[in-house]
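User: Teach me something about this protein's shape.
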Amino acid sequence: MTTSLSERIRQARKHIGLSASEAANLAGLTRKSWERYELDKNEPKASSLTILIDKGIDATWLLTGEGSMLGAEEQDQMQAIDPELLRMIIEEIEAYRKQHNPTWNIAQTARIVALGYTMLAAERQHDVEPNLGNLQILMQAANL
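Assistant: First, the predicted structure itself:
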């Protein structure tokens, strides 16, 4: 499926989790200027597209629509998720929820999973057994 540059800019921005205002701010533009890129009203400056590329969007895909949206490094990171570590985190979160009944919304829960995964994966990279006590501290902090 061929998409226009403006559509790919919008897809990339949304994929990396930026609002139009946030992307505009990073690019040194007004929100309206950024939105004109996404509406195919203005041709984007290369410097504006660099913010998307710097956040892991593949430059060839962004400019031509060919290949994958994600750069090779981003794809490697996605494939490197350890299902066992993720299972441990989810089990800990569920146990914590049963005991403490936090009122986290889905976005807060996702942040806890992501931060917990990053923290425990870093421990594993240093040949240290993941310390679930650190995850407990993270969850307690999320209740504040």
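Now, about its shape. The chain is about 70% helix and 0% strand. The CA atoms of residues 122 and 128 lie 9 Å apart. If you'd like, I can walk through any region in more detail.
User: That's plenty for now, thanks!
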